[in-house]
C-alpha cells in the first residue's frame, strides 16, 4: 500500500468541517433544545452537510467521466474527484459513528451500518484505489 495517498488527503480537513458543523448545531443553532434532542439535531445538521455536497459531487463525478450510466466501470482507478467524494463521506461516517458510540451506544444497528460503510469507503479509497 502506498502511504503517499495519505499526504494529499482532504480527510483531516473534512473531519474538522464536520466537527465544526456538529458544534455549530449543538452550541449555536439548537442551544435552547433539550439535551437529548439537541445532540440528535446536531447530528442531523451534520448529515445534511454531508448528503447535499456528496450528492452534487457524485453526480459531477459520474457526468465528468462517463457518457452513460451503462458505461460505469468500477474496476478503473479512482479519479481525484471520486477520491474527494470518498474522503468527504469517510469523514462524515467517522464523526457520526463517534456521535452514536458516545451518545447512543444502544443503537447497534445504526453503529453497524456506519462501521460497514466506513469499511467499504476506506477500502475503495485507501486500499484498492478503485471502485468508486
TrEMBL record:
Transmembrane segment boundaries: 12-30, 42-63, 97-121
Annotated membrane topology: Multi-pass membrane protein
Cellular component, GO annotation: membrane
Cellular localisation: Membrane
Domain TLC stretches: 36-132
Superkingdom, taxonomy of origin: Eukaryota
Keywords of this entry: Membrane, Transmembrane, Transmembrane helix
Protein name per the record: TLC domain-containing protein
Source species of the chain: Sesamum alatum
Taxonomic path: Eukaryota, Viridiplantae, Streptophyta, Embryophyta, Tracheophyta
